[in-house]
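Lecture 7 notes: from sequence to structure.
We start with the chain below.
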Amino acid sequence: MDVELSPRLVALRSGDAMRQLEVLYELRDGEDATLLPELLKMVTQAETDSQVRREVVELLSDVRSRALVAAMGEALRAGDEGPHLPLLVSICWMNSMDFSPILDELLELVSHNDLQVQVEAVTSVELALERSPLKKLREGIAVLKKRLQRVEGREAKALVKEMINTLEQHAMQRSGQEDMAQ
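Predicted structure tokens for the same chain:
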């Protein structure tokens, strides 16, 4: 059974920068959450025109649909290791929405072998911490401590250690707040 693709999706997949930009400009006026996974793919695909990629990132930085968080989680779990992964991760901190539901995926990237990916992930995690449950913070600490031994490079190790300290501080604060609430 053939599924008919929407004209917007066909245009986004066309490889024609002009058609893609036209759809992006339309989407700015009325967000279509069904296209978010495709837009996220366009950020990391090597064949995406650089101007189109910039426009997609700008659009995704302004999206206010909660569907973006789930779509971003799926995109990060897909494990694209291309040169544009840092740009994809940066959307999480450029967009002011709550990305704490995908804290696990972001923490995975804190120990990534690409320093730029790490920097973008650390920034995104720091913004997600305020809304992350205490249990997730504790799990994140354990995961990063385990991974620290496999991280290569002085700067990379320093970033992971800094993130562990930040998570521990937030966990202590959160634990104290929960104790006071009881």
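Points to note: The chain has ten helices and no strands. The longest helix spans residues 154-181.
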